[in-house]
């Protein structure tokens, strides 16, 4: 059975532990599948005798291995089969004889499968079987999986049997069985296949009930079961036999009460009538004579210490035998164990197993009676002690813990775990303590004063957390209970979903601080914003991204085509695969009556260059001219941009000529699959979208603290441990759960080597280059913990942390030193060398050169060294690795080594490894290379993702990093981070540390080559004006720009699609095309919201064309590519006469509405009278109705106040009661509520203090 870790096996018939699971020859270790190469462990053949035991078999296999060094021979043993496996490459032959134990007629050798993997369909390939002596009777089952038939035959073999290989894939070519009462006959196998082909043949030694049985393979007689037994194991496990009465292994049918003897262990199993289906084996318990059936452990007289001796409370009341140590081995009664309680454990359980946690048990009983709600308190204006928060910032919450059990809960051995992105600073309740585990994982647990949770009661626990909270997605799902008595876990049911409001009372404010000036997007504010920025225009000739120049004659002809067909596709090279696939997905193949021809040719100097093209469209056909395949490919994508994707039966084109070239050479999209994993299909869909809109670099962030997502041969722990999150405190089987993933390990959460190669091939065929990122030295906890798990198994050759390091630090996301690779270790260097070698081999195999490698490099620091943590003791403010003996030794050996610049040292070290492997470029997050210059690196190019914010002095940081000589890729978080909300509304998903929102409009207006200009078109993260002066230096050279989709709050493919799209298209527009409203870098020029230097009319016209094209055409293409893009909620306003007016962020979006709480939805087609005093619910949706926005509520029109009038200026509200979600709302919805409570507001159209009218759609007093 597959095993992991150091394993010891023991026979059922003995209580002693046989030698560790190593083969007879110490030079041949058991591999990861429990198989032994070229030898057979003695313990696997306890029944062999008569000279045909271990020695004979070992000798035969040894001869075989030496005779045929190109072949690998393995034997694997289970309780039913002994498998002999041959693996070889190329053309070879070998023979096997006398492999059967003499006088054992009830065993057969079966050639069950012979697999040959070949890269072509060469008809000369074949596999031959020969059986000698000739004319021996044989019975075989021949199965052809491709023709769906199975035949059974009896015949004489006189010569070779030949099985041709006709498939390029692995194939089952046959099964043959020999039956002999004496020995296996001499058998010869030849494989005819050119060198380099891998083939494998498996022999199964199979047990049959009797000598003359016609039972087919797989029928077992329990009277002849082998006495040896193996059990799957994880971690360091010892399998030892408890003191049980084995006796005979004969199974008897139970037909009524039967005497088995006193103090016997009786094993039982249920079986279907035909014997093919069986339950697990269980052990009979002693009868309970002293306690009632329903009595609990506490009521059991023979168990005064309340030892838990069962898998549930009922078992505990019956199996009431105390075990002092809680170990199975100390339990005198062989029928069950104590503490662990699962009776079946007797078969395989050892004391080490008690360290593992599993779902169910006590935790499930408790969790099923719990209901958790979070009530957001205040971000400011509270009296909580914030001294332990960064810069003294904290907010309050209330944890409402409802216990619904029928009886008081008195146990104290439970903990309630949850993920919180803000550090929990205080729990202000005498009965509960808290503890930060690692990262965002925290728990609360009973304090010493805790006595019980009273039945059917609600407990309110005040919490104090760092910073502020304004987005509901700050609260992570899947809170879970851990019970230390039986080491069980269980998720609290109402948190086990992606709907945050299942366990969250809706937020009542969007203000971080008292001076927060951001305007929340209520329906009315959204209506006002849309009205100012969105005007539907004619976009029949618009392409996204905008071409460099287009020529359309006044008398140009518009014509319809049924479809297009492509000519001279060979000029596209490998890109022809992606081109034809994308045209098919967009429905552009149709009747194919319009010819598109590709040709090589020169272009005018103004546009000539890589990826440039000319597109000439006429009714007679379209010609695309370019100097390289990417240019021709982009020309076809521009043609696709003109096609109306809403009607595949009618494709309309217009005569025009386009000359086009890219603005930036690097046009990127970053996807974080490390924090939370995305499917391979989601990545492929993303690549399709990038190709269609001319983005060319997919920055794939494959590793971070929370996960490692790529299989690396030879470093298996990176995925067997590092790709999974579960509740394993020792982190030997997985990483500790983070980001609301719960206690149970997920299914496969990484890309296999083959899948990554597949993605490389897929992207190459669409002019997209995958840039893999392996983040280090920081954000590397998944790698560090994985290699620690490897070190615990005896191999520390790739260890990434110094086990003697006592440095205390706290990273930006609340990890300790295990988040950072120790650069002072030779094993760390060895790890990177191995990693780079394996990744490069994958690229080579795909035919895609690994010419650029992302190093990561960001945030390798102890945040407690920051000025905001002045209240913390000095002993916690340590430089990374300052107490590492390995680094201290390096300092002593090299006086130039500076431990405070250890991140720079590691960047240069990794860069050397890249250069030595022929990799031309290293990319990093810019802070990772601060303090170095380009000249210190060995690769031809060093590029940085520039991710400083504009309002924190980013423009100065930009000029500094340019002076250091690095290529610059603009990745500014306050404009280009797609893990941030689309708008200021608490229901939006995302983080907001650098910006409260990054709307499509804000991304579109970003000016990457004149950073100061953005101060005129946007505000800072607090909604306030910025004033930015352009430095008196030359404009930094910008190589490209990139949107980032970090995934801390993104847990599904659809959530990723919503956050990335359609914002990705705005990045594509800016990265490919420089707009006329983008001003040149002007040293000394200052920009703010009042300077009016940016030509706003040009900007408005450009955006209206973009957003109209987006809403009326491009989103349909997104859906055809399988991308469920985000639908923005509508804006709406109701005037004094009760007339509803609504609009959308994107033209052509369908808006639905219903009045009051009726069930009928109507399509909004224009202003409609709904009546005075009515509540109107609205929702946007895609044209097919599959994608929908959240439901919002229309608000009454403001009639008495100016657009920017604040609460203080409203004459209608002299008491300044805040009756809206922002100051503008407050001046309109001016109904005073004395208590400030939602429940005291008589007007159903809105609430006071709460103010977010959309809440009404969720119903219930809490929402109102």
Rounded to the nearest angstrom, the radius of gyration is 35 Å
The fraction of residues in strands falls at 15-25%
Task: Note the gap between the termini.
Answer: 58 Å
Number of helices: 22
Mean pLDDT: 77
Shape: globular
Strand order of the largest sheet: 2-3-4-13-6-11-8-9
Content-based structural category: alpha/beta
Largest β-sheet summary: 8 strands, antiparallel
Low-confidence stretches: 1-70, 75-86, 89-248, 288-354, 1198-1264
Work out the helicity level: 10-25%
Number of DSSP E strands: 57
Outline the secondary-structure elements.
Layout: E1 7-8, E2 36-37, H1 54-67, E3 72-77, E4 81-89, E5 92-96, E6 107-117, E7 126-131, E8 137-144, E9 149-156, E10 161-164, E11 175-178, E12 187-192, E13 198-207, E14 237-238, E15 267-268, E16 282-283, H2 313-318, E17 358-359, H3 361-367, E18 370-376, E19 394-403, E20 414-419, E21 424-427, E22 432-438, E23 441-446, E24 457-466, E25 480-483, E26 488-491, E27 504-505, H4 523-533, E28 549-551, E29 558-561, E30 564-567, H5 575-585, E31 594-600, E32 613-618, E33 621-626, H6 629-642, E34 651-654, E35 656-660, E36 666-672, H7 680-692, E37 697-701, E38 703-704, E39 707-708, H8 717-720, E40 725-726, E41 735-736, H9 753-764, E42 769-776, H10 781-792, H11 826-846, E43 852-856, H12 885-893, H13 902-916, E44 921-925, E45 941-946, H14 954-963, E46 967-970, H15 973-976, H16 1000-1004, H17 1014-1017, E47 1028-1029, E48 1038-1045, H18 1053-1060, H19 1063-1072, E49 1086-1087, H20 1096-1120, E50 1131-1134, E51 1139-1143, E52 1150-1155, E53 1162-1163, E54 1168-1169, E55 1176-1181, E56 1192-1193, E57 1195-1196, H21 1223-1228, H22 1260-1263
Parallel strand pairs: 1-14, 17-26, 18-27, 30-31, 31-33, 36-37, 36-48, 37-42, 40-41, 42-43, 43-44, 44-45, 45-46, 46-48, 50-57
Antiparallel strand pairs: 2-3, 3-4, 4-13, 5-12, 6-11, 6-13, 7-10, 7-12, 8-9, 8-11, 15-16, 18-19, 19-24, 20-23, 20-25, 21-24, 22-23, 25-26, 28-35, 29-34, 32-33, 32-35, 38-39, 47-49, 50-51, 51-54, 52-53, 52-55, 55-56
Helix pairs in contact: 5-6, 7-9, 9-11, 11-13
